[in-house]
# Entry
Amino acid sequence: MSPYGLILGISIIIGINFFSKKNTTISKNKLNLFIIGTIISAIIGARAYHIIDQWSFYSKNLWQIPATWNGGLGIFGGILGALFFIFIFSLIFKISFFSITNSITPVIPLCQAIGRFGNFVNKEISSWWIETCLNLVLFFLLKKSKNPTAHYLIGYGVIRFFIEFLRSDTWQVNNFKVAQVISLIFLVIGILILKNQKTSS
# Structure
């Protein structure tokens, strides 16, 4: 296993252990299905995001598409892939979507912080340490949150939006950085969730 894969594996194990302790909504007989499905969906989404971003390379090197051990996982793709699976899972088994995500999101910034060490090992981005520190701050803040899903979307949306100003290697479409657009969408959705919560309470 490559150092990148080892670091990614450590972050996944930490996330699984945290969720398993916090989970109060998914029964034990469905838990393995949920965990495996979420991980696979997150990895597929993360890889797809990276491949689309770097399609000029992968279109000429198709055999490199599955080579995740060399790096190349987009965090936004991973988040979106996982959320899509969780949404489908919640519909099929009639479980509250937010009850699931609220059990997971508090540990995501910690997993992301650990994952950034993989970027350091692969020499992928120079600002890895800044995002690592900010993700750790967000992790400690979410531990006290009563709505971690919303606060994660807002917190990471803000972090990533400003981090993108320090990066020149990320996906752009018509001079717009895709990560910044998604960050703003995360921010708006997070605010709407909080607003809806206050309205319904």
Summary: Residues 90 and 193 are 18 Å apart (CA to CA). The chain has one domain: 3-200. The first strand starts at residue 172 and ends at 173.
